[in-house]
Amino acid sequence: MKPLRGISLKRFFQKHPRPDRELVLMLQDVEDPVNVGASFRTADALRCSQVVLTGISARPPHKLITKVGRGKDRRVRWRYAEDSAAAVDELRAEGFEVLALEITEDAIRVDARSYSARVCLVVGHEDHGVTRRTLERCDGSVFLPMYGKGASMNLSVALGIAAYTVLHAGKVSDAPP
Amino acid sequence: MKPLRGISLKRFFQKHPRPDRELVLMLQDVEDPVNVGASFRTADALRCSQVVLTGISARPPHKLITKVGRGKDRRVRWRYAEDSAAAVDELRAEGFEVLALEITEDAIRVDARSYSARVCLVVGHEDHGVTRRTLERCDGSVFLPMYGKGASMNLSVALGIAAYTVLHAGKVSDAPP
């Protein structure tokens, strides 16, 4: 088993086309620039169309975001919106299904549902999660099952798993967002 | 949508039992304590039976591992092995299917195969990946499809996605590891 590098790596990936689903990541009040940087790298890898940073989220230009994100904050389209709830409203008006990654009573397992053609995933502050005000504006919430003593994962890890799962989920549902 | 906390959160998770597959994470030469810490947190969340740190991997006790891992380095069983290749041999002898998260010519998409009842996932150094010597001892390799300008994700994010996918993969294959 030889690891692939350079051009053969590029060719390898070309054999695996991206599913045809638009994906936006919204980071609400994500304070840690390490999480923001790692999320930019995820956004690049999954070819997300946009990263929306809201509230008190760390944002470029920031040395740690660029370092951890390997410069992807300069490759991935992003914007800042102070008010997350308003940003959710806008995305929904544009036809996005906006889903919070949050454990609520009616949250659905991220791998147990279908998704529409345009999805925005919202993650919240490292300790406090997505605010209630923002949750109320979302179309719903999804969660990752967890089995440990802790009830959470690292934010950028959780977002990565959820985004990867949503992007590759089989059916594009016809349900209006 | 009200976020769940405390006891209602615990009850919520109890409704989603863990799949019956043993999972071990091996980190070869993972230098960044932030990645090691986040991986401990993932290991706790997925109830991995063990984390094996090898080579020059950062290891506890380490302030950043504990901080990023929210103390999970004290909850999750772990051990250090200098020689990754030997550690792979040992795990295979114990009946584990040992798979590198690495893009090799014969790598299989992580979500396109079945797994045996005991799986060890091996990730390598942030820049250099799993060494050839270790790769040669593994049963095979798996990869995550990527669609961006970069050809990799943050290590702890990639490991999280792969580990989550392996744990939840439907069939337990009968193939001898």
Protein architecture, described:
Two copies of one chain form a homodimer. In chain A, helix 2 packs parallel to helix 6. Chain A has one domain (19-168): Alpha/beta knot. The N and C termini of chain A lie far apart (44 Å). Chain A is 33% helix and 19% strand. Chain A is of the alpha/beta class and 177 residues long. Chain A has helices at 6-14, 33-45, 63-68, 84-93, 132-137, 155-168, and strands spanning 22-28, 50-54, 78-81, 97-101, 108-109, 118-123, 140-143. In chain A, strand 2 (50-54), helix 3 (63-68) and strand 3 form a beta-alpha-beta unit. The radius of gyration of chain A is 16 Å and the shape is globular. The longest helix of chain A has 14 residues, at 155-168. In chain A, strands 3-2-1-6-4-7-5 form a seven-stranded parallel β-sheet, with helices on both faces. At the A-B interface, helix 1, helix 2, helix 5 and helix 6 of A face helix 1, helix 2, helix 5 and helix 6 of B.
Helix content of chain A: 25-40%
Write the CATH fold name of chain A: Alpha/beta knot
Low-confidence segments of chain A: none
> Which oligomeric state applies?
homodimer
**How large is the share of residues in beta strands of chain A?**
15-25%
The greatest interface here is: A-B, 59 and 59 residues
Number of strands of chain A: 7
- Tell me, rounded to a whole number, the average pLDDT of chain A: 94
User: What characterizes the major β-sheet of chain A?
Assistant: 7 strands, parallel
Supply the number of structural domains of chain A: 1
As a whole number of angstroms, the C-alpha radius of gyration of chain A is 16 Å
Number of helices of chain A: 6
Biggest sheet of chain A: strands side by side, in what order? 3-2-1-6-4-7-5
Regarding CATH, which class of chain A? Alpha Beta
Identify the CATH architecture of chain A.
3-Layer(aba) Sandwich
| Helix-strand category of chain A | alpha/beta
Shape of chain A: globular
Compressed to H and E, one letter per element, the order of chain A equals HEHEHEHEEEHEH
* CATH-assigned homologous superfamily of chain A: SPOUT methyltransferase, trefoil knot domain
